[in-house]
Amino acid sequence: MSNNVLEITGLNKWFGPVHALKNIEFSLRRGEVCALLGDNGAGKSTLIKLISGVETIEQGQVRINGHRLDIPNYGVKRARQLGIETVYQSGSLGEQQSVWRNLFLGRHLRNKLGFIDQKEERRQAAALLRKLDLRGVGADIDTPVNLLSGGERQGLAIGRAMLFDASVVILDEPTTALSLGEVDKVLRFIETLKEQQRACLLITHNMNDAFRVADRFVVMDRGHIVAEYHKSDMTQDALHKALLDAVGRGA
After folding, report:
1. pLDDT tens column, 66-92
2. What is this structure's pTM?
3. Most CB contacts within 10 A, which of 22, 155, 227, 245?
4. Which domains does the chain show, CATH number per domain?
């Protein structure tokens, strides 16, 4: 039985005449953090939008936990049902809503009468915050999200993925514009995902962050995957040089 939670073969994407993704072959294993690297316009964002159901897959095959996707019926809702959660840089949080309401936004728990089960949602929210070890204002489930720090917001968004038992968590530039202390907090959340045997696809421009948490590095350039490296095979300096060489060669 394959240990891959995500398998992509022959994936292509066009936007009008622009061939945005070209014959992508990619896989992600359980308990693995894979950093997706490359310059702006390399195709990273397009790839994660296809995986998360935001954009339509036009050509190719995708398997999640061994099951081949029904491409015509695949979208964000189906992706979540299959265990794919995406955390964007903004965190996709309701600024004026409380922490606990944000955790269940769009996926509320219901009681037997069909009403939102606020008591159970609050209980689960409090348990999750203890598990995440959020401190300060982020530790209070009634705190409005607009009072949370950047690291706490990212932690909350990652926690939401954990709450709904995601098998694949996609993180899009999760440490951008955060202080060093907040960056460390987010990276520890990522390490927690790995400890829980969840797969994580990390999109980042920060090589220090990538090298700390990732097991594997996949490099994209102009719609192609042009290189792949394993952390066990190189130092951070060697990875940086290899990345420059791979992008410099072009697709």
Report:
1. 889 999 899 999 999 999 999 886 556
2. 0.87
3. 155
4. 4-92+153-249 (3.40.50.300)
